[in-house]
Amino acid sequence: MASDVPMSPELEQIDGEVQDIFRALQNGFQKMDKIKDSNRQAKQLEDLTAKMKECKRLIKEFDRILKDEESNNPPEVHKQLNDRKQYMIKELNSYVTLRKTYQSSLVNNKNVVLVDMGAGSSEPTAEDNIQMASDMTNQQLMDAGREQMTQTDQAIDRSKMVVAQTIEVGTQTASALNQQTEQMKRIGNELDTVHFSLKKASQLVKEIGRQVATDKCIMALLFLIVCGVIAIIVVKIVNPHNKNIRDIPGLAPPAQNFQISNRRLLSVEIFRGMES
């Protein structure tokens, strides 16, 4: 079905990729009838299934872009694009039905069973895991089933161990986080205490500084007074007849008192002479 519907570049690109996948699917299913080996048929069917998954993804992307561009396209163009999408879905469904037919034919006619042959090999391939049921006895089938169940149980046990270890690690991590949270709280309280102590110490230093400054002023004043007294005493000793110094209160007696004292001393001497 050739597309003559006007499309945006993105839709046109997706439409071209889908058509390429349809041609690849048509050629692939035509080759299925020519392949006689069951293993190769299974491999071919897997490749075709992967192409159909990619085609389904592209159709979904086509539908998403179509909805985004719905407001920009005229109604008739939108209808044509929607019909184009429906055509691609119908075409893909036909190949899906064809795949189911070949898969059913492959399983029923060849009686193929998938057996895990991975014991002793690191990464077994798909061809190594396919064995004809006609070549296996009932006991071998039962043993293979038991082995598969044993491996499944071991995988479940390992998963449980991983979950238990994960829970234990999570518990330890939560406990460590709680301890770190408490430690951070204690550190915060200690920092607050240190900040308060520093503030109080700063205030105390300021008060001490003011007291020291006051003491220095008082000591300087006392020093000046002492120096003044010493200077006056020195001057008095050097020049005792200095009237200016004599007139200083406390350093020399008044002149009147000095004369009275002299008179008293003279009277005492006279009185002593008369008695003798």
From TrEMBL:
Topological type in the membrane: Single-pass type IV membrane protein
List each coiled-coil range: 38-72
A GO cellular component term found in this entry reads: SNARE complex
Q: Where is the T-SNARE coiled-coil homology domain?
A: 146-208
GO BP terms in the entry = protein transport; vesicle fusion
What subcellular locations does the record give?
A: Membrane
Give one Pfam family, short name only: Sec20
- Residue ranges crossing the lipid bilayer per the database entry: 218-238
CDD domains the record matches: SNARE_SNAP25N_23N_29N_SEC9N
Asked if the record carries the keyword Coiled coil, the reply is yes
Q: For this protein, what is any one GO molecular function term?
A: SNAP receptor activity
Describe the family membership recorded for this protein in Swiss-Prot or TrEMBL.
Answer: Belongs to the novel plant SNARE family.
Name of the protein described by the UniProt record: t-SNARE coiled-coil homology domain-containing protein
What organism does the UniProt record list as the source?
Answer: Leersia perrieri
